[in-house]
């Protein structure tokens, strides 16, 4: 067998292995410039919801959400840069953190939460803990699709997901809140580009071929 034949034989039997590695992705929104968010959905009585940028953040820019004065009102705001394509990997878990400043409490049942949009549906985790005045920080860790309920699918091959906030109230009043320093930390799986197990063997073989070629 010639060195050339031996090389291709080694390459054929070496085998290429694939592996999956954990990858951490951090998504952050702290400036809330116009165009960085959209009102994706609203519900409740007429009167309108207002979402806007403000400089009264913690610090600098913040997102201002003001709902109307009707019962069972909610506003879903999605961030344009927080879209994750699941075609090449899945989301194993996620941690969420946001600063919030409730400017008022007109009645009862005000609250907010994290939203995941997928295939035209909205899945959310809401928190009705509400303290008026001043900045507070909300942290949720180790979240999976099961925490959101419904048919949310964070596995590889599912539809892309987009993240945002839901703000609402269940009483006949309204709500005004500022948000800042929205952050998601995603533990994901992405296809790795592995080093073939037989690469050191092939490298040694190539070195041997070089010696044999020089001798010939």
Structure described in brief:
The protein contains three helices and eleven strands. By secondary structure, the chain is α+β, with helices and mostly antiparallel strands. The strands form two sheets. Strands 1, 3, 4, 6, 9 and 11 form a six-stranded antiparallel β-sheet that branches. Strands 2-5-10-7-8 form a five-stranded antiparallel β-sheet, with no helix packed on it.
SSE order and pairing:
Layout: H1 3-14, E1 20-29, E2 37-43, E3 50-54, E4 62-66, E5 73-84, E6 90-102, E7 111-118, E8 121-127, E9 136-143, H2 145-148, E10 161-169, E11 176-191, H3 199-215
Antiparallel strand pairs: 1-11, 2-5, 3-4, 4-11, 5-10, 6-9, 6-11, 7-8, 7-10
Helix pairs in contact: 1-3
Describe the protein's architecture and organization.
The protein has helices spanning 3-14, 145-148, 199-215, and strands at 20-29, 37-43, 50-54, 62-66, 73-84, 90-102, 111-118, 121-127, 136-143, 161-169, 176-191. By secondary structure, it is an alpha+beta fold. The chain has a single domain (21-195), classed as Galactose-binding domain-like (Jelly Rolls), CATH 2.60.120. The strands form 2 sheets. Strands 1, 3, 4, 6, 9 and 11 form a 6-stranded antiparallel sheet that branches. A 5-stranded antiparallel sheet has the order 2-5-10-7-8, with no helix packed on it. β7 (111-118) and β8 (121-127) form a beta hairpin. The radius of gyration is 26 Å and the shape is globular. The two termini are 15 Å apart. The model is unreliable at 6-19, 193-203 and 208-214 (pLDDT under 50).
């Amino acid at each position: 067998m010639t060195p050339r034949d031996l090389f291709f034989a080694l390459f054929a039997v070496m085998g290429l292995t694939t592996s999956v590695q954990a990858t951490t992705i951090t998504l952050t929104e702290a400036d809330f410039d116009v165009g960085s968010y959209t009102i994706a959905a609203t519900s409740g009585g007429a009167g309108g919801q207002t979402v806007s940028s403000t400089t009264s953040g913690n610090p600098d820019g913040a997102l201002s959400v003001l709902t109307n004065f009707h019962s069972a009102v909610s506003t879903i705001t999605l961030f344009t840069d927080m879209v994750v394509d699941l075609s090449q990997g899945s989301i194993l878990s996620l941690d969420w953190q946001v600063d919030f400043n409730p400017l008022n409490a007109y009645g009862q049942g005000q609250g907010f939460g994290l939203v995941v949009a997928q295939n035209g549906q909205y899945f959310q985790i809401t928190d009705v803990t509400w303290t008026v005045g001043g900045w507070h920080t909300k942290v949720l860790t180790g979240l999976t699709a099961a925490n959101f309920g419904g048919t949310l699918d964070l596995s590889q091959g599912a539809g892309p997901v987009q993240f945002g906030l839901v703000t609402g109230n269940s009483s006949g009043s309204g709500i005004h809140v500022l948000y800042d320093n929205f952050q998601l930390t995603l533990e994901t799986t992405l296809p790795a580009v592995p080093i073939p197990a037989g690469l050191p063997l092939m490298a040694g073989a190539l070195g041997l071929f070089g010696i044999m070629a020089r001798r010939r």
